[in-house]
Amino acid sequence: IAKEVAKLLEMKAQLGEDEGKHKFVxxxxxxxxxxxxxxxxxxxxxxxxxxxxxxxxxAEVIDTPVFELKETLTGKYGEDSKLIYDLKDQGGELLSxxxxxxxxxxxxxxxxxxxxxxxxxxxxxxxxxxPAMTRGRYREFYQCDFDIAGQFDPMIPxxxxxxxxxxxxxxxxxxxxxxxxxxRRILDGMFAVCGVPDSKFRTICSSVDKLDKVPWEEVxxxxxxxxxxxxxxxDRIGEYVQLHGGLELxxxxxxxxxxxxxxxxxxxxxxxxxxxxxxxxxxxTGKISFDLSLARGLDYYTGVIFEAVLLQQENEHVxxxxxxxxVAGGGRYDGxxxxxxxxxxxxxxxGVSIGIERIFSILEQRLEASEEKIRTTETQVLxxxxxxxxLEERLKLISExxxxxxxxxxxxxxxxKLLNQLQYCEDTGIPLVAIVGEQxxxxxxxxxxxxxxxxxxxxxxxxxxxxxxxxxxxx
Amino acid sequence: IAKEVAKLLEMKAQLGEDEGKHKFVxxxxxxxxxxxxxxxxxxxxxxxxxxxxxxxxxAEVIDTPVFELKETLTGKYGEDSKLIYDLKDQGGELLSxxxxxxxxxxxxxxxxxxxxxxxxxxxxxxxxxxPAMTRGRYREFYQCDFDIAGQFDPMIPxxxxxxxxxxxxxxxxxxxxxxxxxxRRILDGMFAVCGVPDSKFRTICSSVDKLDKVPWEEVxxxxxxxxxxxxxxxDRIGEYVQLHGGLELxxxxxxxxxxxxxxxxxxxxxxxxxxxxxxxxxxxTGKISFDLSLARGLDYYTGVIFEAVLLQQENEHVxxxxxxxxVAGGGRYDGxxxxxxxxxxxxxxxGVSIGIERIFSILEQRLEASEEKIRTTETQVLxxxxxxxxLEERLKLISExxxxxxxxxxxxxxxxKLLNQLQYCEDTGIPLVAIVGEQxxxxxxxxxxxxxxxxxxxxxxxxxxxxxxxxxxxx
Lengths: 475, 475
What we know:
CATH topology of the largest domain in chain A: BirA Bifunctional Protein, domain 2
Helix content of chain A: 40-55%
Number of strands of chain A: 16
CATH superfamily of the largest domain in chain A: Bira Bifunctional Protein, Domain 2
Strand content of chain A: 15-25%
Oligomer: homodimer
């Protein structure tokens, strides 16, 4: 017994020690991550492609606070409202972290009485979801939104949103993709002709929304079992939601004996036809699929909806870590701004949201696989010295370079070894070294070393800035 | 009486109506604001100057989550901890919004065992302070931080931080400024020789910190009345904190019979002398003032501290709205990373934080005063038509332009009036109009109109992209 007690006491002591060491947990909150310099370099590349496209289409940019009054977000997200992060009541207003950028945009429009704007907004949003971080699903993540608000002729802005998704996914070279398109009015019309009661439209729509993740059988049993839909209605829905195609499918459905009798469906199909005509002019119908199974989770959509998914290359072995999935989505929400306007004045809107985290996961994996070395700084030159006691001279020279707009670094040591200085350039990819030495100082020159070739040239001090500019102009 | 009752009823009805209309308050949370396209354009200018300087000095960039575990922030901010925003406990971890970027940076270093990095981080931070928004004080605001972490020879990184502040404030042309510099060790040494008990160092330091806002008499009475300092000690402090100057003041204090006997003060003064030598090599001592009244509120500083303030031009009438104040601050915090490391391993750090909101307020006011028209998009050309039924042709042409990388817009109307299209260019500053018409289509040309001069030239369709590029290359 004494032996056992001693063992237990020892175990307890060990545990106590461990607890003592870890006074606190050193981590970021669940579902969040830091971005180090390498990740940031990749992220900046993706942002740059996205922002370029948004600007190419003439968008302005806005920004809104990370939190909103809690009531601003209430009643906008349906079943997903439970995922909203609330702030603690510390006296004053009740606040929540934004769940997307669309609701704050609608609040911004109503508050400022703006009836006409094309804007983008790139910012983090927050969802208390179950994170799947290896697949790029986080609780804090960026959305890159482009929206067109205003009363315009039908489907012209909608077509432009799809053009933008097409441009961005092509630019980023993420592999093959398809943009699925549908319309809430077609869905609602379909539900009506299938015999779904009006009161069940939204909840049945949520079930259909799951079709990209679970097979039809499961969705059907949810509709019939949990949601009390008749098996006949479910089966009729089942037939429609298998359909996907292009203009010819739209034409066929416009002739469909049931759908063609439904006002909403007819409107939706008519606009879908127009949309496909515009997309043909843009030359992008090859990647667009009119897909009756696309439903989109959010409550506020009123017309066209769309979602871009990456397709897995057949002959390519893709690891589980980066699974294929949705990278962009959006649609038309003509009623949202009116929910904020005291007089209910509506501002029609259509927009798209690019999900950067999943794109980032793919780019990051690809970069790792390619062994491409990515630079995390833009430094053009390291100011170095071969001898001791030249700190002052290095400080003087680097100051001159900074003032001339040259990106320059030096080691923060009084007397660094030349080898260490050259090694630093190798490690960080700095292409040039400006070496000051006693002889060079006397001669009024600086020795410029090209790291890649190890070539060294003496450059007159007054020409140094120009010489560095020329030699790094391709960077 | 009946008349009065009717009147009251009418008033009540009106009130009821108003209440009904405003089902919710349409606003952003207290102390926050939206940034519209114009404000964003100004903000981007300021960011661009700041990021340029950070990159010129070879900084990498990182990002961290907007919230941290509550315990990560605990015990870092002294009296200001009450200003931290906590998230509601919705199950799971207890979280707080970041209060600055320095503590998350230290957590990042400890967590990733990084002992050597030069990085910048531009992001929003949150403080439940009393907002004074007209003066650029918000509850949500950007900080632009540049920090150097690592074990280096004394004062070289510290001097670079001051050089960066000098560069940025000069670049932004905010008017005259001064960068006040002091050292926590000099302050502590001064407190010791003035007879402040060790236990009161921090709280007396907080009092000194108020000297930029309230006169000495008030600070003195807080020290003596609230904080129980002897009047003699307070008066001795009062003599020191009036002092400010340059190298000659440092030399004088190094000879000061009391201070020179104090180990901490001597160390601090020795390093301050070294710092001024380096700043002389950088040629920026003209804007630097060694100021014994500078204390800085935050607990974590251990060495050099500094703060940049804008000086009001004497002959310039400045409105109350933009009052003169601190636009950057920072210092050395050698102990903070060790607070996160399980084994207490220290990583010496020094850094600077640029406060963009106050700078932004000044730039915004200046822009309004100057009546300079600021563009909020970069659109190079509007695709227009003079005749009806040319929507398809406009869509085809704009798609060609987008695919060639040209920034192009069109009105989202089937048959817009030419006048409206030209007016849109005037309003938004688009320099060129590409006009498609039936004759032009037949001739294989596009009519390119230069908005500023009203000149019109026919350009062959295959040369259009090149022509637009040339004509907008200076933009």
